[in-house]
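COMPLEX REQUEST
Ligand: guanosine-5'-triphosphate
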Amino acid sequence: MPLMAATINFDEALAELEQLQHTDLPSAITKLHELEADFEHMTRFQQGRLLVFKGTSFIYAGQYQEALVTLIQSENLVQNSDYLFSAYSYEATAYIALRNFKDAFVVMSKSLGLIDRIENIDIKRAAYLRLASLYSAMGIKEEVGSYAAKAESLASADDVKDICTAKLYLSVYQLELEAFTKAFDEFQYTHDFFESNGFPLISFIALKGMGESKLRLQEYSAAVALLLKALKGYESFNFQLEINSVHSLLTEAYFALKQSAEVVEHAKFVTSLPNDPSYTELKHTVFKVLAGLNAENKQFEQAYEFSKKEQYYNQLMFDEAKMKTLAYQAAKFNADEQSREINLLNKERELYVAQQTVKEREYTNMLMFVTILVGGLFFLGILLAVGQMQKRKFMRMARMDALTGILNRGAGQELGENLFVQATARGGDFCVILFDLDFFKRINDSFGHGTGDWALKKVVDSLKSHIRNGDVFARIGGEEFAILLPYADEEKGMEVAEQCRARIEAIDTQHSGHKFVITASFGVSGLMADDLSLDPLFHRADMALYAAKANGRNAVVRYSDILKCDKQATDLRRHIASPSV
Ligand SMILES: Nc1nc2c(ncn2[C@@H]2O[C@H](COP(=O)(O)OP(=O)(O)OP(=O)(O)O)[C@@H](O)[C@H]2O)c(=O)[nH]1
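STATUS: Structure written out below.
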């Protein structure tokens, strides 16, 4: 009756089923049938797991063809999971049983290819154990030993079960190597462990191994006792292949013990088996024993018949061994080819990685180079900019009067010339004002040079704000200054000069720490028709300044006024030569 799909947790049920498989096969099979009724309610993966188990149960029952169909069906459903390894390895078991060694090796190499992808170390260990078991079934002794050893090496001290299973295969290997005493000891070790830990099926396998070891050691009674115990165990699991194998071993043991009736009884199980390749070896053994038994009983005709059958199965075994060897060699060749290809790919990959590393290094170097270059250029740029700023600063400083901060003589004259050319080229006017502080020597002498400096700065400060943008204000001598007015006529110059004079006179000197009056004399000259440069204007303004000095100082004189009185000018020059303070 189908279980209620809604109420059942299939994952749990499948886990339980897989557990039962090792401990109680009949119950596991009952559970399998129950779950099968709910097959379509399961996920694809759950269906796959169920089919893997179903395939396994077919193998236990000796239905290898059915097992293969089921397991191949499960492959797609359990894709990308560790169950795929199980499916492949059980398929290999079925192929081996069907003596299809070629396909057995194909699926074995597929499962082998999956091992590397298995991350879980426990599953990986179990996978190696499965392979050991398959190679054992194939009779490839070295591989049994090698995979069992791999599994053992992956086990930690706590993984006693897997250590024992590995030992089981290693003992099978010892048996193959005919190291019977050693094989018996290892079989016993594994048997004791599995029996006491609730893994009866494996304990029966070990028991059979113990029996076979004793048989080969010619300890026949002990062999019989052990084999009978193993037989009982296998029967409880209905493990047909192993049951028949034990019957065959028992015929050998009883024959050695000369218990003819028992020989015949156990031989019957084997001789009545269908003509299936998986029974060839067993039949060969049993017919050989029967031939011997009949010969001993002097029933030569019977003995001859059995002997002929023995020969027949011997030939089959020989052929089978040949097939196994060929299949094994073909598989090995393929594997070697594969690993050669993998090595080649690995080498290519190494080359690629090396090339990438070189490229990365080149890139890093280039990056470093660019960084250094850009950094260098940036640094150079900064240096240049700083240099330019310094240069400008020095140039500015070279043009400035250090004490008052206005243009010095050279810069004032140069700028004045440029402005003069510009203005006159446009038909504009130009006016030059020269002024000189009066009796400045007295200030220095009376109050010291510091006060003289203070007075010079104060005069400049008081006039700077009054001078238009575009006009030129320069210190052209110790206490002598020039104001150049482009686009201004003499009238305008007079106006400006008068304002400047008044401002200088109004300077409050008490902040210098002394009380005195500052005055200045001004000479003004406007543009005349013949003027081609600034020089004649300067010259005329200078003359006017002298006139102002002569007129009693603190005055503004224009050049045109002096022309009115040539005589006055002559007097002036004389006066300038000997000023009276
Ligand atoms: N403190 C100071 N004095 C200066 C500076 N440059 C020139 N002098 C002085 O200015 C004085 C100019 O004197 P003079 O040329 O005789 O003219 P003055 O005393 O002003 O008399 P007049 O021009 O005739 O009114 C000198 O004593 C110079 O030493 C300066 O930068 N600082």
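REMARKS: Strands lie at 430-437, 472-475, 480-486, 520-526, 556-558. Confidence is low (pLDDT under 50) at residues 1-5, 577-581.
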